[in-house]
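Table S2 (continued). Query chain:
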Amino acid sequence: MVHHEDDTGRDASLEAVLAEVKRGKAVPCYLLYGEEEFRLRDTLDKITAALIPDARDRELNLFVTDGEHEDVGALCESLITPPLLPGRKVVVVRDTRLFQSKKILGLLIVRIRERLEPDPARAAADFMQFLTLAEMQLEDLRDGGWRKIDDDAWRKIVPDDGGGDRETWLPKAVELCVSLGASLVREKTEEETDRLERVLAGGMPEGNHLILTAAAADRRKKLFKVVLSVGRILTFTKVKGEARQQQALMEMAAGLLTGRGKRLSSGAWVALGQKTGFSLRESLGAIEKLIAYAGEKAVIEAADVEAVIGRTKEETVFDLTGALASRNLPASLRALKDLLDQGEPPLKVFSMIVREIRLLLQAKLLLASGRLKAFSADMDYGRFQKAVYPSLKQGAEEREEQVDLVSQHPYVVYQSLKNAVRFTRSELAEFLEMLVRIDLALKSTGQEPRLLLERFLLAVCKSIQGRESEC
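Corresponding output:
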């Protein structure tokens, strides 16, 4: 969802902001922030194009930099310097650090985890920013120093992150930054930000504009209030719920499809959602491929989606975790091969396996606690939702438990509880110990990752005779 804030705090549409620019009423500054990165970038492109419509003018009057390289002094000089060509001049700072505070540490952790494998350079930059805001030192965390931070200390540093999975991403982030020789991000001085506030408030030549983007912004900062008073602020929150995600995608895809004389059948939309989860980035990319594949056909059908997109990594991940939980060795090995052949990093596959075993162990402990007397392994999902899940969720909230399983989607909880009966507690504890050893081997030895993962699948899925019966 996107909304705009004017100086009275009222919401308006992006279309209204673009219409304002078209009428010649462009404001000095625009701040675009939020978690929905794809829509944010799409809006940035639209505002930039509206401010400087001619692509040839953009070559000389558009200046773009990234937050990790931002220099407030140089930024101010650029903003008060007239453009090279007559017309508007636009300065863009992507992922600015100017609005960051400890309030966004939880969001930084999400971004670090997501970027460790596909974009290590940006993950390292995010992690060094995290250390700056958290007032921590990289040297204190290297060589296993991160292990000295217990759960209580972690919650004090990042109150909105339970820290349950930090052992899977924190050492990787530390190792990455050490290997890259990363340095802490210098915090902006009050004198620097004061100057920028003065420039925005009245020191810019008419026709000069600043566009700032950020994943999050602390609204309490004085700079935020200055931008709110002289500019426009658009926020981009994640669209939640499959129906709303589909609606948002359909709105964004409408122009793309109509302009090419195409439309998707209802079955094609369903198939697309199964392949992409209606993720905007993946879905729009898939629609581009489908348009090209359709040729002269006006209607894109579900069969076209299957032909063009094929099996996704997400489907294969589900196959792997499902086969592992059901102790199906052939299916587990096949899914593992598919993932690795698709280019999925072994460490990422490893983290998926760790998560599945942890959820199974948590499910086993819940079953053993006696708090799920209404649960039966042969009950259907509908009955579980009505008779078991509400009391389970309420009980966890009342006891303020930090149980990863209970915070998952109800269907994930249901499947974990059903599959947990196939394991004993001692088995699951042993598997976690094996995973710790595999983690060490993956990071510190030259052993073949595929072989290590295959051996683990063999250990989990092999038939075990005479297992002790546990609740």
